[in-house]
From TrEMBL:
It holds the Pfam family HTH_DeoR. One of its GO terms (molecular function) is DNA-binding transcription factor activity. InterPro entries: Carb_Metab_HTH_regulators (IPR050313), DeoR-like_C (IPR014036), DeoR_HTH (IPR001034), NagB/RpiA_transferase-like (IPR037171), Tscrpt_reg_HTH_DeoR_CS (IPR018356), WH-like_DNA-bd_sf (IPR036388), WH_DNA-bd_sf (IPR036390). It comes from the Bacteria. Signal peptide: none annotated. Keywords: DNA-binding, Transcription, Transcription regulation. This is HTH-type transcriptional repressor glcR. Residues 3-58 form the HTH deoR-type domain.
Amino acid sequence: MFTDERHAYILNKIQNNDRVSVSNLSKELRVSEVTIRKDLNFLEGQNLLKRTYGGAVAPLNHVIELGIEEKSEKNIEQKDFIANKASQLIDDGLNIFLDAGTTIQAILPYLNKYKDLNIITYDLEIAYRLSKSKDINTYLLGGYIDTKTKTSMSIEGYDNLEKIHADLSFIGTDAFDQDFVYSTTENKAKIKNRMILNSQKSILLCDSSKFHKKGLYSFNKTDNFDYIITDSSNDELNNYIKLNNIKTL
């Protein structure tokens, strides 16, 4: 296994388990503990993990993938505030990409007043709830079902997404800073980026607690979004939006 492959394995292991040990990694990757320590030291130098006695954990400013149930209990009021603002950009007859996650799911109650919407998503909960509406056509990107995040992803689904174009894309994130917006997995990062590329306008929906955090994969520059809709509790974030001439509501 090459060095880059070991690094990717270690980071994915931390993402899924919160921590790793030198001894276990040495056995799993079939390399010496000295090699593993060098790998961990290098990754710590990149601010991708934090060394501990006998292993490593995720750094404090990095996010890991949480289950959908755990996410649904966080920042409920902020998510509803953001969703209400975001819904003002919607109109009848639009084609819309909806990213996955609980912030995006908060938009769903506000869609009932619109007609003839075409919604494309890979979020199973979004697809299920919208399937009950007669005025909304829902398209679910197919593929492997991730039971932790309740999403559906595959190479075939991504290939289908490349052929679809939308008026708006509503994108969520677990982490962003002044430079980049991040995802915790490579597959989700690819889907988010493709949705942005294939839409006329892209809107980032994020509560301010996610500012100044990082994820494993960046999928776009923060100032590339047409709109950033967030709660108003972070003055530094509000100033960043103004200085970069990014629209908000």
